[in-house]
């Protein structure tokens, strides 16, 4: 029983990282209808922003988290303005957007390797390393902090999307971008907001990843799992992304614990294929067919 | 084996694989990062059949290609039916290639798992690889310039419209996936008989990226463009060793820039052929003949 | 359209010119030594540090008059893309750069396909990959021009097994192995074989795929069977860092320690998970904190501090290879491939940068007499406790 509980906690903790990433990814997907493959690279930027603001400037942990979120948001907006928006304005096909995103990912990741080096570093926070003992299960502080801040972030995001005017505009755009534009919504402001929010989530999940594991340029590879999580939840659905992320984390941990560690990822991908076969819109997704 | 010869063989191997991506991504418009998976299947099947069962290497490459082709249905069927968005296909393909890598790493009889399959007979010489490459390019050219090619372009440009005029979109997409996987499988087989050693990690995501890059730089909807791009890209890292550190950075940047400013690729969807030259020469000759006549 | 084509053709001409410039224009023929390493991508530290160390050594040689009165030149190539690159780079080093010998590549998959190429060209190749197939053909015959510049992995795992069984009295070990990596699988097999034949028990076996970050599921399972040590022959140090941290988080780190190999003997690991690895034992070819390395490390840090990459053992293996070549060229008094090859095969008791005196076994082209050091992590530092040979 203890062991099961411990595995459950492990699953939730990795699942929460997937979930946060998947949300940022699903948000962009729901509005712009394309897979932002640059997400992993943005996340990496966030981690390094936090890393350097602690190790060079001696920022407190919370300050570093905020800096990381801001810098990632700026990077996310820059990518949007420099790469994605000109393409959308030219009505380039979605395929081209996906390729651009791939290019951004390759570019940022390798630029980081060449400029700051490929070596792996520890996140410079001793506070986060401490383990809290709950009697039956043990958790590091970083996990608890991640859970609390992620939940807060999701709550704020929900509040923003459902209770504010701009949020309404974003939801309208998600429903039908072109009509929303025709109705007088400033699509540019909406897109900037969405990329900023997506940057916040990428930066935040990057910091948590760095705290939990380590800081290195290739860490963005985990975003592949976030894409799978988003598909399981239903592409473009935000609650779906959260559920998909946590579900994937649990599936992986439980398969590792009770079936096979060697073939764990095979189960993740098989889940993906099975979901596509029997529940093509994911657990919570809608409008899966290409828009006209 | 000389350096130039090695590069030429590598070019032919890459071109065969890229032809597969041309059909799937360039013409049908399906974004995929999983082609290395098909290459892996083709390579392992071909190498095992020849190494352990003594089957002639050309035949085993063919079988490898066919098995790669069949395996593509595992991902193709769930994601291409019912007009699911292309993103599903892209993500599932990524997972497929990773699954193949994981699976082959853990099979020890015949596959030798992560330790890698060594002692594969060296069969790929310059002539064989050039001939295979020429056949594949010719086939791709014929296929894409036939009715099939036009159907595929119609799907890429306007899927719904294509369906309205009666194109069976799912069937055409699946067909191009099958062919594409077959060609990648063949390319994998060629690789096995050239490298003589491989591990499941040989067929990494980077391999898929490189093939995609060739199609992007060469141009969507073009055959000669990506083929030329493959030739340049295969030779380029060799020539530009000096900036080797920055190669991947440049790669990524170039991908963005090409998509931004010349999404139809450096060569666009025009084909390079000798025809315009011939026409010009004929015209010049005619003009010359006329001037000669009039002058006299 | 036309403009684009013109730009491309101009680019090509420019590139061709560049390569011509790179090829021609030497006054006095230097001895060229090729190097193949991963200098870009995620493992860039592997190649970049090695190049720095090799270049320093060569600069020193040149300042003292070179070899056989000729200057020495390092020709480094990056092969980090995939292993087609090691084939191409080798062809290029042989045919265009006309090198005398080649150091590297690191990593068995990169080195294994090169045996035939260097044999035909009669250019010695000194890779430092661990797999047996690097120097041996399928049928057990030796590849005549390939010489391994590092210990064989199975040797160190075997020695470690006998050390933990005989000297530490350990009887229960679990293994945690990356099944997608040849090095890790080879190490795991050798350790299990040696340890069980001594009478020890492998109580549990778990695995993980490449780039794994989350080990808690595996560690929780392993801890159930109460091992004294977990043998984790990882090829990349960040995996060990994460596993150690998670072992501590789960509260098992007091009773279960980690055993390892030179794959993660990288000083940076101590920055990631030093306290968590307290009490871990590993076996390595050479100890970087040994006073005998103090000079080379200080020297390296002074010259290459800006690289932000610490000196690591693989760079020293590359340096070993260079010392082998130096010795062989001086011994043979020639830069002809066959002469160097024969001299390499006859190397006996050569002092190398990693310490110890190496002899090359003509039957396997593996170095013999390499000492192994047993290292214990103490106070977040790798501390050598003893030198050990089976």
TrEMBL record, chain A:
Membrane topology: Multi-pass membrane protein
GO BP terms in the entry: D-alanine transmembrane transport; L-alanine transport; L-isoleucine import across plasma membrane
Keyword Chloroplast among UniProt keywords: no
Superkingdom of origin organism: Bacteria
Listed name of the protein: Branched-chain amino acid ABC transporter permease
Main localisation: membrane
Annotated keywords: Amino-acid transport, Cell inner membrane, Cell membrane, Membrane, Transmembrane, Transmembrane helix, Transport
Taxonomic source organism: Paratissierella segnis
Compartmental location: Cell membrane
One annotated Gene Ontology cellular component of this protein: plasma membrane
InterPro entries per record: ABC_transp_permease (IPR001851), BCAA_transport_permease (IPR052157)
Transmembrane regions listed in the UniProt entry: 12-32, 37-55, 61-83, 95-117, 144-162, 183-209, 266-284
UniProt record similarity statement: Belongs to the binding-protein-dependent transport system permease family. LivHM subfamily.
A single MF term (Gene Ontology): L-leucine transmembrane transporter activity
UniProtKB/TrEMBL annotation, chain B:
Protein's cellular compartments: Cell membrane
Keyword 4Fe-4S: no
Signal peptide: none
Record-linked InterPro entries: ABC_transp_permease, LivM-like
Superkingdom of origin organism: Bacteria
Alphabetical UniProt keywords: Cell membrane, Membrane, Transmembrane, Transmembrane helix
Sample GO molecular function, one term: branched-chain amino acid transmembrane transporter activity
Membrane topology: Multi-pass membrane protein
Protein name, UniProt field: Branched-chain amino acid ABC transporter permease
Gene source species: Paratissierella segnis
Automatic annotation (TrEMBL), chain C:
InterPro entries, per the entry: BCAA_transport, Leu-bd, Peripla_BP_I
Annotated Leucine-binding protein domain residues: 30-378
Gene3D superfamilies hit by this protein: 3.40.50.2300
Residues of the signal peptide: 1-24
Keyword Signal in annotation: yes
This protein's UniProt keywords: Signal
KW Signal (keyword) present: yes
Recorded family membership: Belongs to the leucine-binding protein family.
Stated name of the protein: ABC transporter substrate-binding protein
């Amino acid at each position: 029983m203890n062991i099961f509980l411990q595995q459950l906690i492990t699953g939730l903790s990795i699942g929460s990282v997937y979930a946060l990433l998947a949300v940022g990814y699903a948000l962009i997907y729901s509005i712009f209808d394309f897979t932002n493959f640059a997400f992993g690279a943005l996340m990496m930027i966030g981690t390094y922003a936090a890393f350097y603001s602690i190790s060079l400037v001696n920022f407190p942990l919370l300050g570093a988290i905020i800096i990381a979120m801001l810098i990632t948001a700026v990077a996310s907006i820059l990518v949007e303005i420099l790469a994605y928006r000109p393409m959308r304005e030219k009505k380039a096909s979605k395929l081209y957007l996906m390729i651009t995103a791939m290019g951004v990912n390759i570019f940022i990741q390798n630029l980081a390797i060449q400029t700051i080096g490929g070596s792996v570093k520890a996140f410079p926070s001793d506070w986060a390393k401490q383990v809290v003992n709950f009697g039956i299960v043990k958790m590091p502080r970083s996990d608890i902090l991640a859970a609390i801040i992620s939940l807060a972030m999701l709550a704020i995001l929900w509040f923003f999307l459902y209770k504010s005017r701009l949020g309404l505009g974003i939801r309208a755009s998600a429903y039908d971008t072109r009509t929303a534009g025709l109705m007088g919504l400033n699509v540019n402001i909406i897109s900037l907001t969405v990329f900023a929010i997506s940057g916040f989530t990428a930066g935040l999940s990057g910091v948590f990843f760095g705290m939990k594991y380590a800081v290195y340029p290739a860490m963005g590879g985990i975003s592949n799992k976030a894409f799978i999580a988003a598909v399981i939840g239903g592409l473009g659905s935000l609650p779906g992304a959260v559920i998909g992320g946590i579900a994937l984390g649990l599936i992986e941990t439980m398969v590792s614990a009770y079936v096979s560690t060697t073939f764990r990822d095979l189960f993740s991908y098989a889940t993906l294929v099975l979901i596509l076969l029997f529940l093509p819109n994911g657990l919570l997704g809608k409008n899966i067919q290409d828009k006209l | 084996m000389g350096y130039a010869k090695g590069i030429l063989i590598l070019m032919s191997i890459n071109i065969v694989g890229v032809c597969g991506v041309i059909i799937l991504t360039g013409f049908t418009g399906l974004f995929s990062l999983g082609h290395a998976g098909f290459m892996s299947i083709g390579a392992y099947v071909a190498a095992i059949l020849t190494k352990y069962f003594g089957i002639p290497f050309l035949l085993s490459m063919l079988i490898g290609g066919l098995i790669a082709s069949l395996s593509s249905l595992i991902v193709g069927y769930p994601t291409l039916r019912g007009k699911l968005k292309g993103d599903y296909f892209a993500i599932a393909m990524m997972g497929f290639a990773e699954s193949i890598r994981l699976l082959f790493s853990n099979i020890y009889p015949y596959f030798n798992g992560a330790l890698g399959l060594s002692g594969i007979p060296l069969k790929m010489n310059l002539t064989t690889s050039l001939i295979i490459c020429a056949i594949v390019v010719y086939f791709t050219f014929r296929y894409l310039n036939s009715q099939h090619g036009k159907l595929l372009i119609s799907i890429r440009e306007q899927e719904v419209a294509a369906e309205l005029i009666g194109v069976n979109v799912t069937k055409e997409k699946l067909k191009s996936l099958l062919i594409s996987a077959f060609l990648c499988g063949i390319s994998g087989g060629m690789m096995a008989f050239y490298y003589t050693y491989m591990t499941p990690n040989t067929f990494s995501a980077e391999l898929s990226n490189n093939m995609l890059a060739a199609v992007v730089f060469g141009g969507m909807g073009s055959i000669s463009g990506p083929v030329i791009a493959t030739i340049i890209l295969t030779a380029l890292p060799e020539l530009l060793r000096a900036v080797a550190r920055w190669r991947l950075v440049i790669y990524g940047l170039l991908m963005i820039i090409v998509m931004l400013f010349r999404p139809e690729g450096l060569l666009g969807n025009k084909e390079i052929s000798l025809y315009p030259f011939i026409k010009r020469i004929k015209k010049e000759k005619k003009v010359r003949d006329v001037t000669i006549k009039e002058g006299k | 359209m036309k403009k684009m084509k013109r730009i491309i053709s101009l680019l090509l001409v420019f590139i061709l010119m560049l390569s011509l410039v790179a090829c021609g224009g030497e006054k006095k023929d230097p001895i060229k030594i090729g190097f193949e390493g991963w200098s870009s991508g995620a493992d860039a530290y592997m190649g970049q540090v090695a190049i720095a160390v090799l270049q320093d050594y060569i600069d020193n040689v040149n300042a003292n008059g070179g070899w056989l009165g000729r200057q020495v030149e390092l020709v480094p190539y990056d092969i980090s893309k995939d292993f087609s690159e090691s084939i191409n780079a080798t062809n290029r080093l042989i045919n265009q750069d006309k090198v005398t010998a080649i150091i590297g590549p690191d990593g068995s998959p990169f080195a294994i396909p090169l045996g035939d190429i260097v044999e035909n060209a009669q250019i010695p190749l000194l890779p430092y990959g661990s797999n047996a197939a690097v120097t041996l053909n399928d049928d057990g015959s030796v590849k005549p021009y390939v010489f391994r510049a590092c210990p064989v992995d199975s040797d160190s795992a075997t020695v470690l097994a006998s050390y933990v069984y005989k000297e530490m009295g350990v009887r229960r070990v679990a293994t945690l192995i990356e099944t997608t990596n040849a090095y890790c699988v080879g190490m795991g097999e050798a350790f299990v074989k040696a340890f069980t034949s001594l009478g020890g028990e492998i109580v549990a076996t778990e695995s993980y795929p490449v780039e794994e970050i989350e080990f808690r599921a595996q560690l929780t399972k392993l801890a159930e069977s109460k091992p004294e040590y977990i043998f984790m022959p990882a090829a990349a140090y960040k995996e060990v860092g994460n596993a150690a941290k998670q072992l501590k988080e789960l509260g098992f780190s007091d009773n279960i320690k980690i055993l390892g190999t030179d794959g993660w003997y990288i000083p940076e690991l101590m920055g990631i998970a030093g306290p968590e690895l307290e009490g871990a034992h590993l076996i390595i070819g050479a100890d970087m904190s040994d006073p005998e390395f103090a000079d080379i490390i200080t020297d390296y840090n002074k010259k290459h501090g800006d690289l932000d990459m610490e000196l690591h053992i693989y760079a020293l293996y590359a340096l070993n290879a260079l010392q082998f070549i130096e010795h062989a060229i001086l011994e043979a008094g020639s830069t002809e491939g066959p002469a160097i090859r024969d001299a390499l095969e006859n190397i006996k008791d050569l002092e190398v940068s990693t310490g110890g005196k190496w002899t090359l076994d003509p039957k396997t082209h593996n170095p013999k007499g390499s000492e192994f050091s047993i290292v214990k992590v103490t106070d977040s530092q790798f501390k050598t406790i003893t030198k050990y040979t089976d």
